[in-house]
Structure formats: structure tokens, C-alpha cells
Amino acid sequence: MIRSPALTRARMSVVVVALWSLLIAPTINAQLSRPPQYSPQLVSEIKKVQQAAMESDYAYRQLAHLTENIGPRLSGSPQAQTAVEYVAAELRKLGLEVKLEKVMVPHWVRGEETAALTDYPGMAPGTTQKIVLTALGGSVATPAQGLTAEVITVNNFDELQALGRDRVAGKIVLFNAKFDQQLADNGFAGQAYGQAVAYRGGGPSAAARLGAVAALNRSAGGAEYRLPHTGALRYADDAPKIPAAAVAAEDADLIAHLTSEGRVRMRLVLTPQTLADAPSYNVVADLKGSDHPEQIVIVSGHLDSWDLGRGAIDDGAGVAIAMQTAQVLKQLHLRPKRTIRIVAWMNEENGARGGRAYAEDHKADLVNHFAAIESDLGAGHPLGFYAQGKPELLTVLQPLATILQSQGAGVTRMVEETGTDVAPLGEAGVPTFAPIQDARAYFNYHHTAADTLDKVNPKELQENCALVAALAYTLANMPQTLPR
Amino acid sequence: MIRSPALTRARMSVVVVALWSLLIAPTINAQLSRPPQYSPQLVSEIKKVQQAAMESDYAYRQLAHLTENIGPRLSGSPQAQTAVEYVAAELRKLGLEVKLEKVMVPHWVRGEETAALTDYPGMAPGTTQKIVLTALGGSVATPAQGLTAEVITVNNFDELQALGRDRVAGKIVLFNAKFDQQLADNGFAGQAYGQAVAYRGGGPSAAARLGAVAALNRSAGGAEYRLPHTGALRYADDAPKIPAAAVAAEDADLIAHLTSEGRVRMRLVLTPQTLADAPSYNVVADLKGSDHPEQIVIVSGHLDSWDLGRGAIDDGAGVAIAMQTAQVLKQLHLRPKRTIRIVAWMNEENGARGGRAYAEDHKADLVNHFAAIESDLGAGHPLGFYAQGKPELLTVLQPLATILQSQGAGVTRMVEETGTDVAPLGEAGVPTFAPIQDARAYFNYHHTAADTLDKVNPKELQENCALVAALAYTLANMPQTLPR
Questions:
Q1: pTM of the predicted model, to two decimals?
Q2: Catalytic residue among B348, B349, B374, B463
């Protein structure tokens, strides 16, 4: 999911947002301009859509199949391909016009990943201390037999710079920046993530510039259950590419403790492979509009996932939520006035190629893209929706927010970015939207082996489905145009 | 730690115990007989001991060394031997008379452990679905290349029996009994554990009697972070020994889901080895009594641990708490009237050989064992202490309970067993004791890779040290004898 600091900073406390938006925002909005009135028929239809989604188990069954029958869906993997075919077939079953739009994706394959401390103060003779870690997506490999080097611990980039090349060259550097769980518990989960993830993204090249032979980061996430959190790194052009991995919080603590007492050496084996880019697909499925078929409202999540877990909260849930919108309109025999386009994006996690390819391939037609929704922050209880674009978006959607208030989801808030895959559309002027999910526990599981089906509460998934379906139907049927 | 259902049933809700004991028990006790009065000097010394332990970081430093510098300490491992030598040396440093009492222990060594579903409904061609599991202690191995068989799921022993040999023979059986986290959250953690652990202990032989080729159990513990919980199994004499492992809760869910949809096959590789019994030691360290040196008050925890984590809550904490009692008496220059004997037991986890050997070796002297304390339920806030023996124990210790109330630990309660290692002493008539720890989160980490130093709150460890030191000093100095 989200990786941009701008976005993570924007994802403010759900609690604060809730209070702000419920108590203050409506007043401000009313002063800006007057919300429109929707016709009684449209209001009635939105409520029917909302209610039907709230009662359906379609999304949960789709999510169960994606995660448990198919499994993890890293770009380029057989599971990703099976998932593309599965989602396309399911949407065809609903009667949608489905296309697979080709996109070339990175093809990175995890290998062996083991590490142990081989020398440290007080160690039992003939033993090692196991280190739990996982390679970062895109990491180069160590030699097949591993590398052994001294480990040093720094808490931030400044401490690394202060050590300088003399003390960093030839070493393995651990960036031990702690995930701020209190910040996350207070509702600022995205901000806590943004702080920690800086070292995952930029740490390897920062260490390599000073001659380090490998880089480790304390896992960017909450929950200390010996779980390493993977995620993409970014090699800079001006630095050697060195192997990089995320260690579990407990192992970061261990290394920090032992390096404070004396010399610590580690044997590190990481054997991932970066293969040639592979062909894959965005799944693009249209429920044609009756009055303005050329006008497109995208409803989407991303189909690819990391490989450690089963891609439930990130982001099988988003795909299932989008599919539910189509299912519920078919079930209710409601044909939208504008075209509703369900998109299951490919390669959000390690390249964002799907979103960018779509914006490029449809460049000439983006003027007809009325709006785009992406859900990519799990499936926790939604408090309302984020919007990106002109602030007046919130005014014209105020009647919808009033309807959503019935399910405790009446909050609206402007942000700089709503989702990685729709960001290129947003940059091209298309208004974009996302549910405001309760993400306090999201980063406990995100990018780990524990991102599994059980982490999604079926009732809260239904709430997200209801919100997104109601939002999509409103956007597809509202008489007003959106400011852009 | 604790494995006997009798004990786990006895470890009742800390909340209920607290209310019961605070509001009702004192009244009942008062009716049984009148509590004694301790001399002002004894009361003053108990309070000094309690206070000094509450302010010391000695136990935490010992625990940090045991877990992080030495590491996991499974019986027979080099780390267990290093830990024996380390604890002995530390207690000698304090001036205690230290002996290593030999005990032959099982020597089981974990090997490779991997599993994957190789055939199941809806699978992506050419893929498998990874299953996270860990061998149970004492398990025999699969063939080195693994075994592949159909998996079937049962929720309890009755369902297994109902299937019968025809449908079980040749299969891998998953016992999918869920850990009752709600029961644990309500304070009945031991009871929740007792229910789940029945399948870990007895499942393999029950399945083998019907011809199963391997047995899996859903992990006996809370917290669903893809963490398998190991622990000892018990092979029955009348059944073939088959390989056995605990799967993570998420993987039990997956198997249950897929087996409900169709045929599921698994490839299972477990290569543990059971080597010849190895020599090891109980560490036995005496702080000689001034008036009755022949009378012994044991203060103990167990030094061995499982191999996945680092043995912090189970039971490095118990050993560190016991060591703190000696340290604090030395620091305060308080010589007890009876001998305080610090014991670090070996092999609680997979054989209980240390406790049994001690009782056997000291059989002739057990009449002089005044009391025995063991801490083996983590280091959560202590609410008071358990006692095993005559109910009048609580009466003669009531003045201590009143003192402990100052640290929120004034609860006293009779139980059938206080700790595995002191149970043989209890059976021989020695009164035994244990802290009543808040164990609501204990089984989230117990027997997993996440049993690491950070799971121990330094302040709560100090509270346990204060309680145990005060209890030990009281037992060693009270003018009364204990009923037995």
C-alpha cells in the first residue's frame, strides 16, 4: 500500500479527523458553497446499494478465494497470473465487459534468507544467535554461501553520517528506528509508518555510499511477534547496490544490545533473484453507463501482494471491495448513468507499473475519466472517504456523506494522494477517492507473513463495500459534474 | 512452564481470585484460626527486602544476559551448559555456596521443518501454499525428503474417533482446537491453555492409533501473528510414534478451509533428532541460615527453555527472580535464620528431570525442606502468591500478605500445584509456593520465537522480585513452623 511520505503525513488520526469533520468541517463547507440536492430517486438508489452491500458475503468469498485458494500474488508469480484470470472470469460471470490490459512488471523472486550472530560478547561456545529477517523487495543477493561482517547499529541517518566511511566501510549497518506504536494507536498509523519506512527505502543506498556491505532495517510496522516486514527498497543511482533486509523488532533490539557491549559479527545469507520483466495485466471490467457510457468512474484495488503472507489486507480486500460494487449493482438491476469500471491493478507493491501504464495507455481519454476510487488501507471500519482534487468535491458530495453517516462513515477529508495506483490519474486532473479506514492495527500485519484472511473482519469488510459502492454509484449517477 | 491440566485448572482468573481473596478469603481465614503476629523487627526486615528488590535492576540484567548473550537454552544444548556455568558463577560472586547437581536430560535437537500444501481446490498451477509450523519437542522425524499425504481436519478427539481407521489411515491429521482467547483475556489463561494443549500432548498417539502418518495441532496459544507454538508431546506406549508439529493459527484456518472444499495434500519435512541423554545440572546455591542452617527454603525458576525464542518469560524470568532474592539479602547484609537455597532447575520443558532428580537425591533430607518457591508463569504484575499444602499456610502467612498488599500483591490462594519442578517436593509434604502472575498475555508468546527479553516489563519483574524475596525471607525467618 501507500508509500509516499506526503500521503502518509496526510493520513491523519481517524479520531481527530472524525471529530474535526463531524463538528467543524460541515460548517466550513456550508460557508464555502451550498451542497446540491440529490433527487429522491437517486437517494433511494444509493441507500439500496449501500444496504445490499452491507448484507452481501460476495466480497468476503472473493477475498477468501484470492488469499487461500490462490495465495500470495507477487508481480510476475504464477499466483498473480492465476489471480488475474480468476478476477477476470468472476467479473465476466457478472456480465461485465472485461479486458486484460498488458503491463510489463518487475519479476523479483525471494530466495533463502537466514542470518545468525556468530561472534558477540558472552556467547556460548560453539553457538550462534539466530536473527529473524526477510529480504527487502528488489534486494540484490549476498554470495550464495553468505557474507560475514561486523554489524554496527545506528538510530538514524545522522548517526550514520557521524560515523563516516572509516567506521562504516566493510560493515553491515542496522538502522534501528523504532516504529512509533503510540502514534499508530492514537490514529496516526500512516505517519508512524512514514517515519519508519524512510530507512527501508533509503537506508541501503545511504549505507552503501559509506562502504557498507549490507543494510538492515528494524521492521517498519507495529506488533512485536518476531515478524519481519518486507517492502520495496529504492537503490539510488549514485551508490553500489548492497543486499538489504528487514529484521524483526526483537532482533533489532538484540543487535542494538550486543553492539553496545562489544564487537558483533553476523553471517547473512540472502539469495533473491531479479529476473527479466514479466508480462502481466491490469484487469479492467466495465459496467457500461446508460446515459454517458464514455464517462468513466474507476473503482479499484490492487491485485498483486507481497509474497510472505497471503495479501488479505494488502490488498485482496481492495479488489474484493471493488468487485462487490459490480456485484451489487447487477443484483439490484441498477444500471449506472456513467460507466463504472472495476480495475484490479497489478504491481502496486514493487513498481506501481500498473497504475502508470493505465494512465499512459488511456492518456487521450483521461478527460472522460470522471473519478477514480482505490481502497488500499485494509478493511478496518471506514469512517468516511478521502478526496483528492478541488476542495469543492466535498461540497458536491455532502448529500452522500449524510447518507453514509447512517453507517458511521460520514467523515470527508481532502488529502494530497488517495492511492498509489490512481495517483497518476489524480496528477492528470481526475478527482480521486479512497475510504478512510481505521488503520490502527494495519501496520501490525502489513507486508508480513501474518497478512492473512483472518485479519479481515467480515462485517467491517461489508462496511467498506457499502461505502465504496455508494460512493461509486453516486459518482456515476449524480447530475452535477465534479470540479477539476 | 506448567503443563498439568490439574494445575492449569487451578490457575483461576486473576481477577476473580483478586476479588475473592480481597473480599471473602480474609474473612474465611480469620474464622479458621487467628493469624500470628510477626515481630516488629521481622516486619521491618521484610519491608526492607521488598523495597530493595523493587529498586534493583539486578534481575533484569541477569535476564538480559541469559536471553541475549547466551540465548535459548534447550536441555542438552551448549547454551544450557553455558547458562549453568554462568548462573553458578554469578551466585558464587554473591558469596553463596554453589553446587552443580548432575541430572541426565533428554537431548532433542530441532532440524529442518517445512511444509506446503501441494494439491488443493483452486490452486494456481505450478505453485504450493506455504504452511508455517514447528516440530513438537520429542517428535520423531519424517523421512529426510519428507512425506506427502492427504490432510484431514478434526476439531476434537470425538470427531477423530467418528472418522475411524478407514478414513484416518495414511493421512495427516490436523487437530484444529482453537485457543480460547476470550477465556484468557478474562484471566483464565491457564485454563484456556489446558484445553488447547490436550491435543499437543495426546493428539499424535490418538491419530497414530488409527493409522495416521503424521499429526498437526493448531498452536496452543493466543495471538495470531503466524507464530507456531512448540511444546512437548507424549507418545503413548500402545501407538506408533509419528511425526508431529504445531501449525500457526492462520495455517490451521487455511487447512480447515481448503479441506472443507475438497482434497488437500501436504508435503511435510521434519528432521529433528533424539540423541542420547546428556549430562546437565541443577544449579543449587545456598545462603546458609544463622539459626537453622539445616532447614531449607528453596527459591527457584527453571533455566532450560524451548529453542525457538530466547526463554525470557519461560523461564529466564523465574531464574532471575530467584537470583534477585540472594542479591538483595547480600546487599542488605541480612542473614536468614534458615538456609535460603537458590535453585535454577534443568529440563522443566521436556522431561522435568531436574525437579525429579532433586527430590530423589535429597529424599532423606526432605523433612528439613521447610518450603519451596518456584516462579514459572512469566513476569507479569503479581497479585499475590499461590500456596500448595495445608490451607492453614495462608493463615500463618497472613501478616506477609498484609505487607505485600502495599505493592498490590496481597492475594493468597491455595492450588493443587505451584510449579512443575517443585511438584515432587510438594508430593513429599513440603509446602510450595508461587507468585500469582497476571498471565493474560503469557500464552501469546509462550513456547514461540517471540519469547524474548522485550516481553518482560522491567517494573513488573521488580514487583515479582519483591514478592518472592519477601516471601522467601519470611519463610526463612518466621518463628512458626509451617503446617504439613
A1: 0.93
A2: B348
